[in-house]
Every structure is written in structure tokens, then in C-alpha cells.
């Protein structure tokens, strides 16, 4: 046995036998993680206190009570480095099979080269456990990184064969609002990869991150609402009341973003920029729904310690009158879904136009009445409708007449409807102008009834 092989085996033995320290992700990252110059304006040792909104999210990643994490976040605040911290932690501290899914294969390859590779290179404890790229038999490729006790595979949500090919314990889904509705003909890509982690329960985790998109269509919004819906709250520097930072409370004068400041909705105190940054450093996540194993987080650019409010307001002012820019601002800066105007389904628009009135009561604008009848084997169902100008209509009554429709009895009851009168608020009496009978069932009997009713 060569000395080199013996040394590698001894290193592997020590790694396997080394007891795992009981550290949270925050503790581990603060001690061992290093940021790369390619991905950070502050390269060097990671410090959670520099981006306090990341603390609660990171603690959930190593909380045994949490099996699913959702992060609906603004851009350029915490998503990518949070995912990198999770990957690094498990490479070193808790090795296992990991899968990271990006919207496309090309984006997965780019993330591997631009984010994962520099992290491995610049974090010594990670570099020590990851297989070398050198050699023909290297297990370290763009799409797969092997380390002692596990590996991470990077795949695209548009590649169904890769999503269901191997068991996974930690599933990381990034920018989920850009995933296709179905991975080929295989179904929802998140469900596909989540299913691969079932064999590791209860030690598996599904983590999804994204900026949101369109209300009602946003995957990350749906996932966020399925969790305990945590929001980042901070204390007012003046009154101490803790609340979620909201853009509605940011004010400025004369269209000048340099005058932008946060106004406490409780006491009215106008925060200085240093006060806002200090408030962020004292913030925490507050759940607004019951916790059932799914921790979901929402955080906006208002909670960023690096970007002053003047920059945020300038982006908002530049987006005015430009729908696409405003949509991007709402999604990527405020971490909120965009409400499409005029895109509500017909049922929703109809519901919003509803009016309240009593059964059998006539609206003053009704001019005449009609009725429609549906024929079934054991019943007749009819609706009386009142009609006004411009094709307006009001449902006046709906009744079911039970009985064998091959016999005359239910039809006789229906004839009574023809003889009925309804009184309008002005005292005018109205009868049915027309009754239409669906002849789709028992056609001959329906025709007999029609002849009978036409004599009325």
C-alpha cells in the first residue's frame, strides 16, 4: 500500500470516527464559514450579526422540530448565502446526500461555478472534506460534489430524470417561482425531489427560497402561507413597539428620495438611518400562524442593513408609470406578490358584483319574468329569472318538484308555476312571459307537457 493511499485512508478514518459537535448553523457559520470575493462585498469570515434577518432562518435549518423551511425574500439579502451555509454545514458537520435544484440545468451549473466552488475554495473546513477535482476518476464535477459521507447534486427543475434518480436527505429548491409547472410529464418538480427524501424521515429537510411573482400563481407565496408565516419585526427606537417594517410607513418630501425616512405608525417618531439599522440588528421573526413543522419566513429590503431607504425610494420613483418596473420593485424589493389588474377569473368578478335581496322579491327594474326547467327521471328543477334593461337579470326563485317525470303529477305542479304571480315594489303584478323546458331526458313526455303549457 502506497504512503499516499495510507494517508488518505487514515484521513477518512479520522473523519468518520470524529464525533459531531452539537452546533447550530449560526454557531458553525460564525466560526468556520468564509465569504468569497466573487459573491460578497465583505469577503472573509462570516458574521451573522452583519445580516441579522438571516439568524432566524439559519436557526430553523438545524432545529430538529422543523422539517420544512420556506423563505419568501427580497433579492440580494440572505437567500444564496443561507443556502451555501446549509451546504457547507452538512459537508463538514453532518454529511449526507444533498440536492440543490435551480430553475434550469444551465442555472444549476452557473450556481455551482459561481457560488459553490468559491465557497469550497475559501472555507478551509469545507475544502478539507471535498474530493479533489484532479484526476480522471475525480468525483468532483460541476453537477456533483463529493465529500466524506455524502455528496451534493445540482440539477435543473426542467430535467425530470435527474429529479427522481436517487434518495436525498436535504433538498434545497432555489428561485422556485421560476420553475415550470411540471418537469416534463413527471409532475411538480418540488414534489418529485421532496419524495426522494422520504426515506430519511424524520431527519430530512425541504428548503425552498424565492422572490415572489404574481398573486395566485406564486409558488413561494403558496408555500409561505402553508407554513407558520413568520415576519421580521423590529422595535421602534422611540416607543419600543415591535412591528413588521412596511413600505407604507416610509415617507419623503417633494419627490426627493434623499429625504426618505421610516415613520413609526404608533408614536409618529421619524427614524434616522442609523436608528433603522440598529432596529434591524435587534429584530426577530414572529410567527403569525400555528407551527406544524413548517417554518416559513418573509423578509423585505426594508430589513436590509446595507441599503439605505433613499435607494429603495429612488427605485420606487423610477418605476412609476412603468408597470413592469413596478412589478419588479414589488417582487424583488418588498417581497410581495404583484396583483394583476383585470386578471381576476370570471367567477371572482361575478362574485364581486353580487347584490343582496330576498327570495321571490322583485327588483324595481325587472320588466318581465321567464323560467327554465331541467327534467330528470325523479324530479323537475326550475328557476325563475327576472329581466331588466340591458340584459340585466335577477334570480327570483329556484325549486325542485320531486316525482316520476313519466307521470303527470310533477307536471301538474309545474303548471301551477305558470299561474303564479309576483308583485313588484310598485304594486305591478307579473306572470311568467315564457317557460323553457330542457327536453334532454324523456323527450316525448316533455313534448306533452309543452303542448299542455302552451294552452295557458
Description:
The chain has 456 residues and is an alpha/beta fold. The chain folds into 2 domains: 3-231 and 290-300, 3-Layer(aba) Sandwich (Rossmann fold); 368-454, ATPase, nucleotide binding domain (Nucleotidyltransferase, domain 5), CATH 3.30.420. The protein is 32% helix and 23% strand. It is built from 15 helices and 20 strands. The protein has helices at residues 3-17, 25-32, 53-61, 79-92, 105-122, 124-127, 160-163, 189-195, 219-226, 273-281, 309-318, 323-332, 346-352, 409-419, 443-454, and strands at 34-35, 44-45, 68-73, 97-102, 144-147, 150-156, 170-174, 205-210, 230-235, 242-244, 250-253, 256-262, 284-287, 294-299, 368-376, 379-387, 393-402, 422-423, 429-430, 432-437. The strands form 5 sheets. Strands 3, 4, 5, 6, 7, 8, 9, 10, 13 and 14 form a 10-stranded mixed β-sheet that branches. The chain has a 4-stranded mixed β-sheet with strand order 17-16-15-20, covered by helices on one side. A two-stranded antiparallel sheet has the order 1-2. Helix 3 runs parallel beside helix 4 (79-92). The radius of gyration is 32 Å and the shape is elongated.
Helix content estimate? 25-40%
Biggest pleated sheet: 10 strands, mixed
Summarize model confidence as the mean pLDDT: 86
Overall number of structural domains: 2
Uncertain segments: 446-456
Q: How far apart, in Å, are the first and last alpha carbons?
A: 108 Å
**CATH superfamily (homologous) name of the largest domain:** P-loop containing nucleotide triphosphate hydrolases
CATH class of the largest domain: Alpha Beta
Number of DSSP strand runs: 20
Task: Round the Cα radius of gyration to an integer and report it.
Answer: 32 Å
Structural class: alpha/beta
Strand content: 15-25%
CATH topology of the largest domain: Rossmann fold
Helix run count:
15
CATH architecture of the largest domain: 3-Layer(aba) Sandwich
Described by the principal axes of the CA atoms, the overall outline is elongated
Amino acid at each position: 500500500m502506497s504512503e499516499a493511499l495510507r494517508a488518505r485512508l487514515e484521513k477518512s478514518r479520522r473523519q468518520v470516527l470524529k464525533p459531531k459537535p452539537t452546533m447550530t448553523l449560526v454557531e458553525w457559520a460564525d466560526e468556520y464559514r468564509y465569504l468569497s470575493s466573487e459573491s460578497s462585498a465583505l469577503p472573509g469570515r462570516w458574521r451573522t450579526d452583519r445580516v441579522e434577518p438571516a439568524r432566524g432562518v439559519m436557526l430553523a435549518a438545524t432545529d430538529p422540530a422543523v422539517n420544512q423551511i420556506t423563505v419568501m425574500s427580497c433579492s440580494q439579502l440572505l437567500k444564496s448565502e443561507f443556502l451555501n451555509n446549509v451546504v457547507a454545514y452538512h459537508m463538514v458537520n453532518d454529511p449526507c446526500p444533498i440536492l440543490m435544484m435551480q430553475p434550469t440545468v444551465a442555472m444549476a451549473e452557473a450556481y455551482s461555478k459561481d457560488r459553490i466552488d468559491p465557497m469550497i475554495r475559501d472555507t478551509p473546513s469545507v475544502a478539507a472534506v471535498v474530493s479533489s477535482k484532479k484526476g480522471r476518476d475525480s468525483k468532483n464535477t460541476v453537477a456533483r460534489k463529493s465529500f466524506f459521507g455524502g455528496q451534493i447534486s445540482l440539477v435543473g427543475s426542467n430535467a425530470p430524470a435527474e429529479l427522481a434518480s436517487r434518495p436525498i436527505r436535504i433538498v434545497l429548491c432555489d428561485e422556485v417561482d421560476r420553475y415550470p409547472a411540471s418537469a416534463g410529464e413527471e409532475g411538480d418538480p418540488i414534489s418529485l425531489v421532496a419524495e426522494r427524501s422520504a426515506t430519511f424521515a424524520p431527519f430530512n429537510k425541504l428548503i425552498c427560497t424565492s422572490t415572489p411573482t404574481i398573486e395566485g400563481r406564486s409558488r413561494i407565496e403558496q408555500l409561505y402561507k402553508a407554513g407558520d408565516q413568520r415576519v421580521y419585526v423590529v422595535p421602534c427606537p422611540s416607543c419600543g413597539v415591535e412591528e413588521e417594517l412596511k413600505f407604507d410607513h416610509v415617507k419623503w418630501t417633494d419627490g426627493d428620495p434623499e429625504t426618505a425616512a421610516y415613520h413609526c405608525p404608533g408614536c409618529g417618531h421619524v427614524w434616522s438611518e442609523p436608528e433603522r439599522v440598529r432596529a434591524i440588528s435587534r429584530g426577530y421573526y414572529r410567527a403569525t400562524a400555528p407551527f406544524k413543522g413548517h417554518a416559513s419566513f418573509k423578509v423585505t429590503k426594508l430589513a436590509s442593513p446595507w441599503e439605505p431607504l433613499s435607494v429603495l425610494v429612488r427605485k420606487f420613483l423610477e418605476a412609476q408609470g412603468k408597470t413592469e418596473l413596478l412589478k419588479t420593485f414589488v417582487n424583488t424589493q418588498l417581497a410581495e406578490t404583484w396583483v394583476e389588474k383585470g386578471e381576476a377569473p370570471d367567477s371572482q368578478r361575478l362574485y364581486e358584483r353580487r347584490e343582496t335581496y330576498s327570495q321571490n322579491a322583485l327588483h324595481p327594474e325587472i320588466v318581465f319574468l321567464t323560467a327554465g326547467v331541467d327534467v330528470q327521471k325523479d324530479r323537475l328543477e326550475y328557476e325563475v329569472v327576472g329581466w331588466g334593461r340591458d340584459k340585466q337579470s335577477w334570480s327570483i326563485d329556484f325549486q325542485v318538484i320531486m316525482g316520476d317525470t313519466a307521470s303527470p303529477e310533477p307536471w301538474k305542479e309545474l303548471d301551477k308555476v305558470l299561474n303564479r304571480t309576483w308583485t313588484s315594489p310598485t304594486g305591478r303584478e307579473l306572470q311568467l312571459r315564457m317557460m323553457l323546458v330542457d327536453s334532454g331526458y324523456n323527450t316525448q313526455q316533455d313534448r306533452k307537457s309543452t303542448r299542455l303549457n302552451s294552452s295557458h
